Amino acid sequence: MAAVAEQNKMTEEVLSIYTNLVGIRDKLKAMKEAPKQHSQEEVHHFQQMLDAIDSRRKDGIFAGSLKSGVPEGQALCLDVLDESYDLVSELMAAAPELSPEIRQTYTMLAGIKNKLIRLKASRSYALDDVHHYQLMVDAIDAGRKDGIFGGDVNHIPSGQAQCANILFQVYELLRQLLNSAPEMNPQMRGIYSHLVGIRRKLSDMRQHNVRHASEDLHVYQVQLDAIDKDREDGIFGGSLSTKVPAGQALCSTLLAQCYKLVEELQETATDA
User: How far is Cα 97 from Cα 40, in angstroms, rounded to an integer?
Assistant: First the structure.
């Protein structure tokens, strides 16, 4: 019902984008559920359609911009776009061109690529956001043996060309983002540092099996809730109506990681 109510408030242009996205998502879902195998070429067709819709956003906004205004329906469109990109990654990895040994690697690279594309479109990222993904990609690249994904010179799983191609694309996106990424402003740097500190303390607590009660975790929960509550329109240190500071993606990821750690630690609390 909430989705229907939001659709009724959409402008004609946003509704057209939303309808298009839903159509693509439903076709991808049908492809995933179909018993017939699909090729990467078939899936790539939908990837291109999504990229075209995504590339037309200004300041990360569908059919609008920070200067001209933010039409209703942004969250709904973004949810369907994200879901569609995730389906594309899953379908690409399940295509017969890829052997089982490298499907996980391909899925990870495809997921990173999609996140970088969206990060680039948002224009609200910082160097720290890009470095976060750079480390992930470097780890995947370093895991190759003799330049081979999921094998070695004695065993070369099929799909090497596809993985090598998407790795190249990811590195090219990283290069573009690194060249244009601004530094975080002082307010965002403060939020980022606070979240990093909380994550480090929670990670140490979990890693070293430190005895803890729910009350110990409540301190961190309150801090996280305060950071989350200070967001306006889901944005750290800004709003859609003013300015979206660089560093949104990294802070969002850190906040989600911290909440997840609190949830996991609650299960092992002494008074659980």
Answer: 7
Helix (H) or strand (E) holding 6: helix 2-9
The angle that helices 2-9 and 74-94 make with each other, rounded to 10 degrees, is 120
Question: What distance in Å separates the CA atoms of residue 102 and residue 257, rounded to the nearest whole number?
Answer: 26
Question: pTM of the full predicted structure?
Answer: 0.53
User: What sign results for the dihedral spanned by CA atoms 169, 175, 181, 186?
Assistant: positive
Q: How far apart are CA 26 and CA 264, in angstroms?
A: 34
The answer to whether 32 touches 90, Cβ cutoff 8 Å, is yes
> 68: which 2 tokens?
């001209």
* pLDDT tens figures, 191-220: 988 998 898 889 888 877 788 888 989 999
Q: In this structure, which long-range contacts are made by residues 22-29, counting pairs with CB atoms below 8 Å and at least 24 apart in sequence?
A: 22/80, 24/49, 24/50, 24/84, 25/80, 25/83, 25/84, 25/87, 28/84, 28/87, 28/88, 28/91, 29/87
Cα–Cα distances in angstroms (integers) from residue 187 to residues 177, 222, 236, in the given order: 22, 20, 9
What's the token pair of residue 130?
A: 């890009």
Cα–Cα dist 193/85, whole Å? 30
